[in-house]
Amino acid sequence: MGSIFRSEEMALCQLFLSSEAAYNCVSEIGEVGLVQFRDLNPDVNAFQRKFVHEVRRCDEMDRKLRYLEKEILKDKLQIIDTGENPAAPQPREMIDLEATFEKLENELREVNANAETLKKNSLELTELKHVLATTQLFFQGRDSEPNSSITQNLLPAEEGKGPVQLGFVCDVTNRERMPMFERMLWRVCRGNVFVRQSEVQQPLEDPVTREEVFKTVFIIFFQGEQLKTKVKKICEGCRTTMYPCPESAQERKEMGQGVEGRLADLRTVLNQTTDHRHRVLAAAAKHLRTWFIKVKKMKAIYHTLNMLNLDVTNKCLIAECWIPTVDMGSIRAALRKGTERAGSSVQPIINQMLTNQMPPTFHRTNKFTAGFQNLIDSYGIATYREVNPALYTTTTFPFLFAVMFGDAGHATIMLLFSAWMVLRERQLIAAKMSGEIWNIFFGGRYILLLMSLFSFYTGVIYNDIFSKSFNIFGSSWHIGDNANATEHNLQAWGELTLNPYYRDLYSGEPYPFGFDPIWQIAVNKIAFQNSYKMKISIIIGVFHMIFGIMVSLINHLFFRRFWNIVCEFLPQLIFLVSLFGYLCFMVFYKWVSFGSGEEFDIQHNSDCAPSVLIYFINMVLLKKDKPTGHCDVWMYDNQFTIQLILLVVALLCVPIMLIPKPFIARRQHNQRMRQLAVSRQLLETQGAGTSASSHEEEFEFSEVFIEQAIHTIEFVLGCVSHTASYLRLWALSLAHGQLSEVLWNMVMKIGLQQASTVGCVMLYLIFSFWAVLTVSILVLMEGLSAFLHTLRLHWVEFQSKFYKGEGYAFAPLTFKNIINGDEEEAA
């Protein structure tokens, strides 16, 4: 639990690696995944580093693998994932990998180019076949006449003139371009051409885009060379494909037979080409994931090596890195293993360095705590070694959510979904389901599981299951002979108002667990439940904030900030307890000392029950109310004196939080400066000169005082606003219950009131509609709303009492993301 309670203790280490063993040592460190390297060459351009050539080679191999992956997915082949974790290849193996990838890429590009050429030829021959078939239909009547030509005597001869000579061209174009082409042809040729067209019924495949396109075959008849030139230019401009067409039927028939023969040959060659491509891709798919892992590991290693420095002899690489102190043994073992793999006789050296720099924050998490840690990290990475709120969030987060989402029925739906994800998590992880929303739900499956369990508990406390109640233990109320809410009793009772003062109706003993089910049909149900939920929300909020202040004590003790205990922790705790802790005390005192029944005297019955909020306001304003009737002004003896003392104590805490801390900070700064001056004088006396690392920032008392004033004002005002903010627990619970009740009465109740046979069918349809609205609105939307409000209560109201969140995350060199298929680099 130590790592989740407080971040791991880190050490800044210096590594000395021999040049021949550096690659293997970094590879083994990446397999361990517990070392964060620092860049020792921040001012060196990325293109001027020592291993930039190797990084470029890895980028080129990665590009070729992505090309192979795209072609494999295009052929709808499955990339085999054997689950193995291959080691990073040796540098000498890079040449073999490059040769393999180069051969595969060239072979695939050649096969693709040949296939594209064959498909283009096949498309042209197919279009020519349709052209010949279409012209055969157009000229069928003319071809039946002997010794006739389709370009002669198409029109009757005029007097004194010979027969009219007509020319024609045959073209093919996309079907959607045909209207535009006809309009242009009509306008340019002024209606002096004749067009016949026929649509090709079956779609043809485009060899470039591999999409299906629909074509149209058309024939244009014209007279004269001038029109012929215009028609051909229009066809070229509209990107139509022109095909030759013989004039005689016999020639067209012979050409068609030749086209069919060539098409058959092309299909045979194209099928062989496709089969060869498929075999190449299938063989590559077996090793593609392994190749990806190897290349990404090599790239991450060389990227890390670029962060290292070379010594003056160019035989040793020097690195600086952050390592968890508890893992120093495993890192040393990894370095020894890397040296043995490289066959080097020079052992690596690891030295621990002293530094004033803040180390990175590293929390070890498992599949249960990872989701809660992500909620905290979204607010801010914890400062090094400060208390991590994620440990407490595992309990407080689902509990506060459940207070707002208290419905056992809706919680059951959420429980079934989260339990399914938890029980089948291995299968779901292996399926590698994509989708941002799914990844969010699956990543927070344990959060959902706990939220649903807590919500089921609060739903039982509220006795609220889909806006209805269960009478498990028997009601404590008796109206007439019994308290069963039958149709006859409900009609007899009319509007039912419950008052515990009348003991002939109330037994005097509360319901054993949760709310009495009879409150579900009472007129004063909302008034009763609102009073309870509002007070319990304030109590939960005050205790939550007090707990946050108590956690700050752990930070002060650990970092040895003892003055903060006196000037910050104690006054904050006393201020909060004196005002809002006393408010909670009055709530409990009212619940215990006032009530209905014979056991309470006339001054402590329900008529004299005081308003806690009015008492609290009067406490702050130093105001006294006049007595009313037989009721006392105060809840207990000496109440005004005690309230005055608590108010004075709370006000005295404000200057204690504001004034001493800046003066203490200035005094500590002056002490450090005097010690620094003494050390400098001693160094100068010994002739060692001054140290550049002894620089101390200037202390601005005004800035420190203003900052402390801001923190003090923020805390004092925040106590009021944060306490009021916890009323969202009551508001969201009320809204959720009322929405659930409205949905039942407006939808489900209609189906249950149907008594006919048709009503059974209507009930089925209405239940489906009600179920969809319940899941979409009350579970998803209301659940998301309660989740966001709970997140705000933790980020603002709870964590602001002790959590700084000014650290930076531990980012080690790890190959885990590469193995899991993450696209991000491990470097």
TrEMBL record:
Q: Where in the cell is it found?
A: Membrane
Q: Where are the transmembrane segments?
A: 399-423, 444-462, 536-558, 570-589, 642-664, 758-781
Q: How does it sit in the membrane?
A: Multi-pass membrane protein
Organism annotation: Portunus trituberculatus
GO MF entries: ATPase binding; proton-transporting ATPase activity, rotational mechanism
Quote the PANTHER family the UniProt record gives: V-TYPE PROTON ATPASE SUBUNIT A, VACUOLAR PROTON ATPASES
Q: What does this protein do?
A: Essential component of the vacuolar proton pump (V-ATPase), a multimeric enzyme that catalyzes the translocation of protons across the membranes. Required for assembly and activity of the V-ATPase.
* GO-annotated biological processes: vacuolar acidification
Coiled-coil boundaries: 94-128
Query: What Gene Ontology terms describe where this protein resides (cellular component)?
Result: plasma membrane; vacuolar proton-transporting V-type ATPase, V0 domain
Family to which the UniProt record says this protein belongs:
Belongs to the V-ATPase 116 kDa subunit family.
What is the protein name given in its UniProt record?
A: V-type proton ATPase subunit a
Keywords attached to this entry: Coiled coil, Hydrogen ion transport, Ion transport, Membrane, Transmembrane, Transmembrane helix, Transport
